[in-house]
Structures are given as structure tokens and as C-alpha cells.
Amino acid sequence: MATCDLSVIVPARNELFLQKTVTDLLTKAEGDIEVIVILDGYWPTPQLIEDTRLKIIHRGKPLGMRAAINAGAVIAKGKFLMKTDAHCMFANGFDTVLAADCSDNWVVVPRRYALDPEKWELVDNPKYPIDYMYLSQDLHGVVWNEKNKDPELKKKLIDETMSNQGSVWFMTHDYFNELELMDEKTYGTFWNEFQEIGLKCWLSGGRVVVNKNTWYAHWHKSSDYGRGYSLSRDDQPKALAAVDKWKNKGWHKQTLPLSWLVKRFWPVPTWVGEKNSL
């Protein structure tokens, strides 16, 4: 039984701005939350501040992002579950806004901006905000520039998106379990996080939704120093094999073909052929 409104899981691997992210979450939330930080093979310097809403799992040896998220989900007590990267800033009341529009079979993402983590402020970049992404024909999430700039779509504050970035996502705790996330055996430790989430959701009858009533800002990639998790070459074969599976049937609970999703968002960049021939 849930004992708080929201559990926020923060997988962290050699993160420079973890404390800023944790403080931001605890400060900006308006509901009853807990923040679960998984220190994956390191201790931050300085140590994280103490807070009754903060729980810390420390691993002496790094086991990867999917394992970290799963470890947090096991002990999470929230009705809702949110994952965030360890270098993100949030709007005031992000938690209550996301919970207000989240059905039982939805995965919800906030509007995304770019973050300067040292100044802890939004980056002025014409690429942002980002609301929509699509899946390319090789099933990678790509920013959907045409949709993001469409003046009519800007008026839709709750809307469907074909895909998204894995930096922040939100759903009920029960739905996380129903989707059997995060699957290390199939996907490996890190690759294709939102490919797994989005396709499991869409192709079993759920919806991936962007909520533009709130936002988060993610570390803009212009910074020069290293951060967080990296893409291991050892996981590449698993990632490629997972893509091939979705072209047929990628998951045992899947009830809809991949072609159904492409048709729903047609026309989709990089996909060739007539809609009715997919």
C-alpha cells in the first residue's frame, strides 16, 4: 500500500550535480514525496545533506542504470513513480501537476528545457522547449522539430508523443510493474531506456503523453566534462537485438504491431512507403 504520493528515483553514477538535483526536487515538490538516490559505485563529495524524505542506496560496485532504477522501485512507497537523471531542475509543483493528469496506463513526461548546471538556470536555446519526439525507422528517439514548432500544437497542453528522452518519466507504481521495467536481460544496463518504456506502453494499449503544464530542464550537452552513465559497447548487441524484436513482436504482453504506432503518428520522418502498406 502506498504511503506517500510520489517516489522519485535518481540513479547516479559519478554525478557532479546530484545534490543540486535532490535539493531542487525536495524544494519544488508540493505533495508528499520521497527521493530515492542510488549511488552506483561511488560516494558523492561532499556527502548528500540529510532529509527525512531522502533515502540512499549505495552500491560498492556499479551495476548499471536499469539495475539502479529497479532497486529504487523495489523500496518505493509512492502511488506514483518518477525517474529523473541526476542533473535536472524542475518547475514548482511538478509532482502535483503530473499526478493530476496521469491515467493508470499512461507514461507522462513534462516539457523539456536545457539546463546550465553550474549556474542552475535555463539555457536560452531556440531548440527548446521540446515536447515531441518520434521513433526513427531504427527505433531511436529523435526530436520532432515540425511538431515542436507547430503553433496549433502549442495550444494542446496535454498531448500524445510517439517517443521521448529517458531523462524524466512519470507513471503509477503499479503500471511500472505491469510494464515489467527495467528489463536488463533484453536491453542491458543502459541502452534504449525510453524505447523500452514507450513501446511497451503504446503497443499494449497505453499512451505516452507530454504534459506542457509543467517542465524540467536537463543538462545541456555543451558542457565539457564527463557525467553519469555511459553507453557500454558490451550492451550494443542486446540493444540491436531488441530493435529487431520490436519489428515482429518485442514483448509477450504486446497486443498491437509496430505498424499500428507508425500509422497513429503518420507521417513519421525517416519512415518510407505509403501509410496503408505498413
TrEMBL record:
<feature type="domain" description="Glycosyltransferase 2-like">
    <location>
        <begin position="7"/>
        <end position="177"/>
    </location>
</feature>
<dbReference type="Pfam" id="PF00535">
    <property type="entry name" value="Glycos_transf_2"/>
</dbReference>
<dbReference type="InterPro" id="IPR001173">
    <property type="entry name" value="Glyco_trans_2-like"/>
</dbReference>
<dbReference type="InterPro" id="IPR029044">
    <property type="entry name" value="Nucleotide-diphossugar_trans"/>
</dbReference>
<protein>
    <recommendedName>
        <fullName>Glycosyltransferase 2-like domain-containing protein</fullName>
    </recommendedName>
</protein>
